[in-house]
Amino acid sequence: MTKGGTVPTAAVRLPLAVALLAPLAAGCQGLQRVQDRAYTAARSLITSSYHDPAAEDKLVKADELFRTGKYADAQDIYSDLAENTRNPVLLAEKARYFEAECQRERGRLAEAVATYHRMLQDCPMGVYKERACGRMYDIARGWLKTDTLDRIAAEQAGTAPPWYADLHTRLPDPLDRSRPLLDAEGESLQALEHVNTYDPLGPNADKALYTLGYVHFYRGRFEEADDYFSQLVDMHKQSPLRAEALKLAIMAKNNSTGGAVYDSTKASEALQLVRHAEATEAEYAKDDGLRQFLTRSKMAVHVQLAQKEYERGRYYERVNHPASAYFVYHEVCRKYAGTKYSDLAQARIAALKELQPKLEAEREAAKSSTWGKVRREWDRVTGGPVDLAPDAPADPVPGSAPAAAPVVPANVQGDTTGSGRN
Fold first, then answer.
1. 179 CB contacts (<8 Å, ≥6 apart)?
2. Can you tell me the distance from the alpha carbon of 177 to that of 116, in angstroms, rounded to the nearest whole number?
């Protein structure tokens, strides 16, 4: 106290200043965070490549936040490090991978799949490739199990509920960040395709191929199913799913032809695959059910190819080419004996043989007609094969030498000169 009874000025001002600045300091921290985010957003509009000497320290800080469960704060730092293209490749790859891990831990699975895929695009041969593909496979498989696989199993067992019973579960839900907003099945299939594309020999590649082929097969998209099953058969010889994939590949090839009037390449491939299974797959040789399946598949392919050849012969008959039809029918009987089209082809061969005299008579009559004469003359002028008229002797080719006299062998006894002397 002073003589006048007043408080010292310094002793009063210091506590008052601390009390006034305490809330301001907390506000400054929030303001600083807003300024940092604004700076980051503005910088991204100008450039995504800049020198960051504190990148390693930021990564250590983000790892610590991730370990303590502060995934939102860690995600912001990881994203900033991954976006900077001047950072080292290994650092950027790790930052992108753990950015996706933060999204997965926060339940934002659709965003996590997109971030994993972006990491694979930027670093297709990186050290986190197998881990990212494994995460994508698990997420996609979970989506498919809920929306597709369980329903397929229920329909095959005959216990599927009516379509309207679970309609509410398939409607878009903007508040559910754990699933795609629209077309969860399509997004799942796309994620599985990324797994197979970026890690074709990885531990999840064969399972991804089988799931892709299985869903496409069930949906009736047999060409796509055949492609995925054939890849599994060709590239994953030791996979436990190979035997089942081989069976489904044969069925998909048979069903993807479209019928006998279309290209028979897929049917021929199915027959080749059946023969490959008979020759190389021990499991098919031991199992009676699988052997019977191969026999049925082979017969189905034979019937389809026989039908195609038989219809080709019928076409030749319709366009008045009986000789070509006769040849095709003989090929059907030779290649596909035992099928119903072999019997039909034999009946057509017998019918064509009965028509042969009539066809020959019509041909001879056409030679004597005016049009036949004009056609023969045209063929003679143009150098084409000349179809002679009935009872007409063959004319010598112009400019050709006359026929030579027969040569008598020297050892033939007798007088060849007519002189009567030996």
1. 109, 110, 143, 173
2. 16
Per-residue pLDDT tens digits for 260-275: 777 778 888 888 888 8
Q: Average pLDDT for residues 162-185, to the nearest whole number?
A: 77
User: What 8-state DSSP symbol labels residue 373?
Assistant: H
Nearest to 112 by CA among 123, 121, 100, 97: 100
- The Cα 271–Cα 253 span in angstroms is 9
Model confidence at 205: pLDDT above 90? yes
Of the CA atoms within 13 Å of residue 284, those in its CB half-sphere come to 20
C-alpha separations of 407 from 8, 404, 417 in Å: 156, 9, 14
CA dihedral 348, 350, 353, 358 (to 10 degrees): -70
pLDDT at 383: 67
Query: Which H/E stretch holds residue 30?
Result: helix 9-46
pTM beyond 0.85: no
Q: What is the mean pLDDT of the chain?
A: 80
- Whole-number pLDDT of residue 49: 76
Q: Is the C-alpha dihedral spanning 236, 237, 241, 244 positive or negative?
A: positive
Which DSSP state fits 145? Answer: I
Q: Which of 216, 197, 212, 206 is nearest to 116 (CA)?
A: 197
The per-residue DSSP string of 278-294 comes to: HHH-HHHHH-HHHHHHH
Q: pLDDT higher for 158 or 130?
A: 130
Residue type, 62: A
Of 126, 44, 53, 51, give the one whose Cα is nearest residue 89.
126
pLDDT of residue 16: 53
**Cβ pair 139, 113 in contact under 8 A:** yes
Q: Which amino acid, one-letter code, is at 377?
A: E
Which among 225, 278, 216 is positioned nearest to 254, based on CA atoms? 225
Q: Which pair of tokens denotes residue 226? A: 């055949």
In whole angstroms, how far apart are CA 100 and each of 65, 108, 131, 142?
15, 9, 11, 17
Angstrom distance (rounded) from CA 17 to CA 19: 5
> Residues 290-302: pLDDT tens digits?
888 888 888 888 8
Rounded (5°) CA angle 273-279-282 = 105
Whether pLDDT at 392 is above 60: no
The residue written with tokens 């659709």 in the block is 110
